[in-house]
Design goal:
By secondary structure, the protein is α/β, with parallel strands linked by helices. 37% of the residues lie in helices and 23% in strands. β9, α16 and β10 form a beta-alpha-beta unit. α4 runs antiparallel to α8 and α9 crosses α12. It is elongated, with a radius of gyration of 26 Å. Bound molecules: S-adenosyl-L-homocysteine.
């Protein structure tokens, strides 16, 4: 499979700096499924073309997967597929990230670029190719190929040569190709693993949210939901045989039976939103967003400029997405929202750069040994100016008629804290990471046992 990228931005040979591959050389790279070669069919100051040739080795593949004749007979070695994305990520890693040691400014400048994919399979026809690339501003030209030139009466094949022209940064072009080529590849699940799927989708975040074919694109990655949920989550949680989606759903219903009649959730959300507004936090990341109760309220309120939800459960994220999609928002408002799958006990740079982080009824779901990792992820690395955490007040449980004595409110809760326990923890964090902390009771306050929910607000 062959991808060429050309530019007429002058001096055109600067493309070599952007791709980190010298125009005078032909370089080869070994990939898990074959070889990639980078060379320049033309390189002068007027025009420069870099070629990425990916050779898929069917024998290597068959060994990787267990052999059947299908591998030897497939079109894999010849057409642009998920392999090309993997090759782009490995061979043009720096360019894809928009970095360049020697030409950083050029890497961030839109330049005229033409990408040409020699053969792209597209069973749904060239319409899909246009739907994917035209909304991103590309001028798309396609050439269909006959099934067999010796037998024109057999008609057209599903294969196209595609040329994409646009003025944009090289990183944007690579990111578009990286995310969209696998959409055309119906067999991607056989070849790319779940970690790669995560990486792919993460790359599209900045532009996918406003893409009119967003649903179709994401659906093409999520066609097999179990593929994403089970192994990804097991890895993230480092626990085998744990199906968080199923467990969560059951326990959440039980918790709702206890809390809903008393409007705890409503009170929590009102208190959190009021606090965010009080401190002028316009860019908010909701960690452990669940099915998006808070996100829904934030997104409807134009005060909030950026609203990001993070959850480890792809099932919850899917429900959140469906729910948020039903909000009657103008099209240009959708880029305020991002949903990302992630675990709170792992450092993640996607959590950086927010005014405030909210963590609503989540910490009690974390194992105590993991809580410390979470504290560092949030207060040491992500470091938002404001952190709001709510958690049940265990002292109040005796007032809950639907809760058996001695039980926690949700079966997945690893602990519930008294007010003193929560405040000691919150103050210790404040001291350790240089935040001041204040507390607020949420819901009706009882003179003896306090309020149903407790909230801490840290200011950095
Ligand atoms: N904040 C939401 C959901 C609370 S339920 C609300 O108030 O309605 C707790 C959520 O935390 C669940 O959606 C669960 O999937 C998520 N969660 C639990 N452990 C997590 C972890 N380690 N990383 C990320 N999310 C986690």
């Amino acid at each position: 499979m062959l991808l060429t990228i050309s530019t007429t931005h002058q001096p055109a040979t600067e493309l070599g700096y952007l791709l980190h591959k010298h125009p005078d050389l032909c370089q080869s790279f070994t990939l898990p499924f074959g070889q990639a070669h980078v060379f320049y069919p033309e390189a002068d100051t007027q025009r420069c073309t870099a070629a990425l040739l990916v050779e898929v080795n069917p024998v290597k593949l068959a060994r990787r997967r267990g052999s059947t004749t299908e591998q030897y007979l497939s079109d894999r070695p010849y057409v642009a597929s998920s392999f090309l994305s993997v090759a782009i990520a490995q061979v043009f890693n720096t360019a894809l990230a928009g970095r360049s040691q020697e030409r950083l400014q050029l890497a961030q400048t839109p330049i005229p670029l033409v990408a040409r994919l020699s053969v792209v399979p597209c069973r749904e026809g060239e319409g899909l190719l246009r739907q994917l690339f035209e909304p991103l501003g590309y001028f798309v030209s396609t050439t269909g190929h006959l099934l067999d030139e010796n037998f024109p009466e057999w008609g057209q094949s599903d294969y196209y040569t595609v040329e994409l022209q646009h003025t944009l940064t090289l990183a944007e072009l690579l990111s578009h190709l990286y995310v969209l080529i696998p959409v055309l590849d119906e067999h991607k699940y056989n070849w790319i693993n779940d970690e790669e799927v995560e990486k792919l989708l993460r790359h599209g975040e900045s532009w996918l949210n406003t893409h009119p074919a967003r649903k179709q694109i994401i659906k093409s990655y999520f066609q097999r939901p179990t593929y994403l949920t089970r192994p990804t989550l097991a890895r993230l949680l480092q626990e085998e045989n744990f199906d968080p989606d199923q467990a969560q759903e059951k326990y959440t219903q039980q918790e709702a039976a206890i809390e809903t009649p008393l409007h705890f959730n409503e009170h929590r959300i009102n208190a959190v939103v009021a606090t965010l507004k009080h401190y002028g936090a316009k860019r908010v990341i909701d960690l452990g967003c669940g099915q998006g109760d808070l996100l829904t309220v934030l997104l409807k309120d134009s005060f909030f400029e950026q609203v990001t939800g993070v959850d480890v459960s792809s099932y919850s994220l899917k429900l959140a997405r469906e729910r948020l999609d039903r909000l009657p928002l103008p099209r240009n408002q959708w880029n305020r929202l991002q949903l990302i799958q992630g675990a709170l006990s792992y450092q993640d740079e996607r959590f950086h750069g927010y005014d405030a982080a909210t963590v609503i009824e989540v910490i009690e779901h974390l194992d105590l040994p993991r809580l410390e990792a979470f504290e560092r992820v949030l207060f040491e690395f992500a470091k938002p100016k404001i952190v709001i955490i709510t958690t049940p007040n265990i002292e109040y449980n005796i007032k809950l008629k639907n809760l058996a004595p001695g039980k926690l409110r949700h079966q997945d809760h690893r602990f519930e804290w008294t007010r003193a326990e929560f405040q000691t923890w919150a103050e210790r964090i404040g001291q350790r990471f240089g935040y001041t902390v204040e507390f607020q009771a949420i819901g009706e306050e009882d003179s003896e046992v306090g309020s149903p929910t407790q909230m801490a607000i840290w200011l950095g």
